[in-house]
Specification:
Strand content: 25-35%
Shape: globular
Radius of gyration: 21 Å
Number of strands: 18
Number of domains: 1
Structural class: alpha+beta
Oligomer: single chain
Helix content: 25-40%
Distance between the termini: 57 Å
Length: 274
């Protein structure tokens, strides 16, 4: 499933001329792309051709531009697409979910599976199955009232019904899923349904909280902390940092150190052979 999903993602971006070359050279990380002949700068330039997305390979994050679409009320999502579920999301993104998926792959993040529900007949109840995938740390980048750029963990804008703040900004890279429509077209479902980053479980989100949660209106857990969030309509950026990311340059340095013995080591080896 993962292999076919990645292949479909490459096909999905083939219509973006500057990126189709990157798709040919790169597999799943900038390091592998570099081994195929592309420099980190070339890979980053091609990735930045994805609409609404900027990728910083050196610092290890993906930026998706958008606007604040809600400043009060209950939440099902953190991020949706423009024209999507803006009435229950914090930010509406210009980028497509499949392009965000691709950018995270290029930073070495590995997708897993979205949360889902399984009926346990013997107990006559539904069991929530947690998502799988690498952790991605989310923050919101925006300008405050004085025009200064700020980056704030996404958790600071979210609280439960009792006013307790969300305790994590680390989300699971679940990777959505592919489904075929009646006309035979294969679709990346987070783009179809608008579930890019969720706090309730839908089964097709790209990123989500570590534990499944009902999306029924009367069972929603999270709401906006209206005091801290920028005003509706304000420009903002969702920043996504794969946890544990290592820049390509540091990987190269580590390889060089492993391959090249120190002077002390060489001296010791010389003494051993005499």
């Amino acid at each position: 499933m993962r292999t076919s999903l990645i292949g479909l993602l490459w096909l999905a971006i083939a219509s973006v001329p500057a990126v189709s070359c990157a798709a040919e050279k790169a597999s799943s990380s900038p390091q592998e792309a570099k081994n195929d002949g592309s420099t980190a700068e070339q890979v980053q330039e091609k990735l930045n051709a994805l609409p609404g997305i900027e990728v910083n390979l050196k610092q290890g994050y993906v930026d998706a531009a958008g606007k604040i679409c809600l400043d009060e009320g209950m939440l099902e999502l953190i991020a949706t697409n423009e024209g999507g579920k803006e009435h229950e999301s914090i930010i509406a993104l210009k980028a497509k979910a499949k392009h965000i998926h691709l950018a995270l792959l290029m930073l070495g993040a590995k997708p897993g599976t979205p949360p889902h529900w399984k009926y346990i007949e013997a107990q006559d109840r539904w069991l929530g199955i947690p998502p799988k995938g690498d952790l991605v740390r989310l923050s919101l980048v925006y300008r405050d009232g004085e025009g200064k750029e700020r980056e704030t963990p996404i958790s600071e804008f979210i609280q439960n019904r009792e006013g307790e703040q969300l305790t994590t900004s680390d989300f699971i890279f679940a990777g959505s899923r592919i489904a075929q429509s009646d006309d035979g077209k294969k679709n990346y479902m987070a783009d179809v349904d608008g579930n890019i980053v969720s706090v309730s479980s839908f089964g097709d989100e790209t990123l989500c909280l570590p534990e499944p949660a009902s999306n029924a209106n009367d069972q929603l857990i999270w709401e906006i902390d209206a005091e801290k969030l920028p005003r509706t309509g304000s420009a903002a950026t969702l920043r996504m940092r794969p946890v544990g990311y290592t820049p390509p340059e540091k990987k190269d340095e580590g390889d060089s150190k492993a391959e090249t013995p120190s002077k002390k080591t060489r001296k010791t080896r010389g003494n051993d052979t005499e």
